């Protein structure tokens, strides 16, 4: 029972420290090394289970059952060794012939063990039980253990060799993998001398603890730092995109919304009309009088000042509405809420100010208002065109007065 107790304790510790890798399926969708690590941990757990049952069945002298469990034991041993080599290959991501050889030797070992175990049913080349149920190891078992020692030692030496050119974090992980290989090799050598001691299970317990502490946790920390850096990079990109969007949606000369913002607003209004969500809104179209004449006689700087003055006049009156500059001397205000309710008085005050400015020789802006006719208008453009027509009527009137 002492033999089984060691395997059971190893299984419990193994399941506790590798709970995340064994239970969570996300390891299947991570890197090849992550998937290989999960399969390795599952294989080691199966090995512990077979090892635990072996001691119980052996003490109970259940020869047939312990024979079957011994076959499972050696099969799990071969699988864990192959998956170990696969994990090392996927973790290192090297393309040298040594790595390829390590992988194919592990695969060959697994295939050979399968054939040997089948042969052992007919000829005791690996192990046998005598008439009293006592376990005996055959010569081939020792040869297989020696092959494992060679594989563990060679993989450990190679990992340590290539760790020289790595950064500190990667070097620490490589050394941990190398230490694992050396520990397993030493314990397998001792296992050859004492076949009835659970040294192989102890070796895997020690090795998986090393992997979990110095490799997996270290990789998780690197991943956490990488994710933090990614989040910071995304936030920076969002800010840059926000700044770029703000620049694209803001008219640089007047500070009001640009034509790009106007196009987006028109699209949104059309969507709200189509869904019957929007019930009322108004559009005021503005046109600055005399811009071409000012540019021709006083220069474009004077023309820019004229546009800025005109924009201030519009924003001062329609202060609760978004204002867009949609052309050289053309602006649009979208009236909703308070400005929509007061649209008649606001427009009257604006037109009065335009006539005062006309007499004083100040900035004159023509305007035209139209409101959404629910049931008649199917798009924003229809409302805009009515407002635009009224603006041109108003512009002609102001020119006549001038």
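Sequence proposed for the structure above (402 residues):
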């Amino acid at each position: 029972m002492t033999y089984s107790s060691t395997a059971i304790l190893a299984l419990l510790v193994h399941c506790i420290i590798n709970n995340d890798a064994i239970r969570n399926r996300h390891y299947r969708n991570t890197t090849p090394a992550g998937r290989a690590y999960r399969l390795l941990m599952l294989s080691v757990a199966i090995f512990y289970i077979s090892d635990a049952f072996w001691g119980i069945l052996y003490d109970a002298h259940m020869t047939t059952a312990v024979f079957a469990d011994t076959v499972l034991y050696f099969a799990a041993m071969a699988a864990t060794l192959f998956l170990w080599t696969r994990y090392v290959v996927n973790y290192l991501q090297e393309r040298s012939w040594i790595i390829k050889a390590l992988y194919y030797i592990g695969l060959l070992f697994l295939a050979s063990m399968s054939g040997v175990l089948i042969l052992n049913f007919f000829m005791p080349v690996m192990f046998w039980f005598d008439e009293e149920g006592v376990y005996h190891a055959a010569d081939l078992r020792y040869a297989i253990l020696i092959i494992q020692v060679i594989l563990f030692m060679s993989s450990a030496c190679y990992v340590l060799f290539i760790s020289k050119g790595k950064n500190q974090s990667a070097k620490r992980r490589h050394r941990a993998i190398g230490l694992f290989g050396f520990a397993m090799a030493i314990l397998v050598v001792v296992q050859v001398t004492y076949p009835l001691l659970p040294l192989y299970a102890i070796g895997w317990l020690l090795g998986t603890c090393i992997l979990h502490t110095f490799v997996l946790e270290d990789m998780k920390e690197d991943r956490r730092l990488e994710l933090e850096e990614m989040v910071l990079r995304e936030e920076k990109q969002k800010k840059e995109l926000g700044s770029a969007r703000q620049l694209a949606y803001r008219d640089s000369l007047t500070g009001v919304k640009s034509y790009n913002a106007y196009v987006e607003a028109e699209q949104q209004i059309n969507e709200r009309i189509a869904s019957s969500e929007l019930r009322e809104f108004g559009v005021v179209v503005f046109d600055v009088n005399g811009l071409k004449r000012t540019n021709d006689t006083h220069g474009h700087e004077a023309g820019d000042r004229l546009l800025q003055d005109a924009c201030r006049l519009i924003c001062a009156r329609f202060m609760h509405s978004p204002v867009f500059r949609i052309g050289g001397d053309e602006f649009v205000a979208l009236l909703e809420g308070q400005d929509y309710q007061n649209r008649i008085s606001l427009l009257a005050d604006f037109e009065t100010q335009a006539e005062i400015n006309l007499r004083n020789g100040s900035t004159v802006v023509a305007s035209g208002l139209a409101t959404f006719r629910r049931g008649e208008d199917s798009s924003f453009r229809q409302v805009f065109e009515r407002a635009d027509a009224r603006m041109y009527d108003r512009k002609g009137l102001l020119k006549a007065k001038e």
